[in-house]
Amino acid sequence: MNFIEIENYDLDLTLNSGQVFVWKKIGDFWYGSTVNGVIKLHQLPRQSAVQDGKRGIYWQTYPEKDNEKLVRQYLRLDDDYDQIVKAIQHDKHVNLALGKYQGLRLLKQDFNETIISFIISANKNVPAIKSSIDKLSRLYGSMLKVDGLDFYTFPLVEKIAEADLSDLKSTSIGYRVPYVLDTAKVLALKDRNAENSIVNLSESEAREELLELMGVGPKVADCVLVYSLGFDNVTPLDRWGQRFLAQYYGLDPKLSYKEMRNWVQKNFNGFAAWAGQYLFEMIRNSEKA
DNA sequence: TCTCAGGGGCGAT
DNA sequence: ATCGCCCCTGAG
């Protein structure tokens, strides 16, 4: 496998952080069934990496091999982690989480894939989301053999757009079926220009565009802004978000979504996305225990 | 078998 | 701006 040296990047944390649903860990290897093919990743445990002398990520891509650009972009390897930490560590709760979850990162996922994924995510828990996306990929993605295993890439919106209702229902998407179908049709018509037309917009303009799509409300729109378009000062505020704002900062849980967003955007030096991801991780784990 | 909540959004009010 | 409902699944 190829190797990229990088510090402060924890694959296990990042791929399990609720920002992405297409990754499976098989043995010591991660396999991601993205719309751009399968990405295979591997990271040595911290101790053995230190003995090895260098910390980094082993990787390969399929069907196109050695696509370093894809991996570098998807994992956001060119982010300045130290600078981001400096920007948000003044906050004591974030600082605590930065210590606990060092190396948790944000990804940059495909635009259409992110939209469809988070429409499906509405009012579901993470295992259920993964299950639905897996079924959807088996139906409309393309099969790819990697290491003797069958993987199904995340479907193109053009494929989903051609789906019929009863097939889509078999993926346990539930009442979101018409949203997924309608939005897939809209995105398919835009023919990959959707992202290009949105990527240069301001945050609020981009959000308004996204909200036009069926099944995309404020929270899902913010997920796309952060996890695909790289707006680092946006945090998707789900029930967990409301919870950490209430528990850690004493905010009224009945604040409107917009009021919560305004508060978050003012308090993390332009990196609310990162602060939010760390706080999300911390409060989610605190309730598991 | 049952309850409860899940990284919400829609439509009516 | 608020509120009830929506399909389905995982977790207890």
Would you give an account of this structure?
By secondary structure, this protein is α+β, with helices and mostly antiparallel strands. It is built from 16 helices and seven strands. It has a five-stranded antiparallel β-sheet with strand order 1-5-4-3-2, with helices on one face. Strands 6-7 form a two-stranded antiparallel sheet. The two termini are 37 Å apart. The relative contact order is 0.13.
Which features does this protein show?
289 residues; alpha+beta; 16 helices; 52% helix; DNA-binding
| Total count of helical runs of at least 4 residues | 16
CA(first)-CA(last) distance: 37 Å
DSSP, total strands: 7
The percent range for strand residues is: 5-15%
Give the topology, please:
Layout: E1 2-5, H1 11-15, E2 23-26, E3 29-34, E4 37-42, H2 46-52, E5 56-62, H3 68-74, H4 81-88, H5 92-100, H6 111-121, H7 126-140, E6 143-146, E7 149-152, H8 157-161, H9 165-169, H10 177-190, H11 193-199, H12 203-211, H13 218-227, H14 239-249, H15 257-266, H16 272-288
The structure holds a DNA duplex (13 and 12 nucleotides).
Briefly characterize the structure.
This protein is of the alpha+beta class and about 290 residues long. It is built from 16 helices and seven strands.
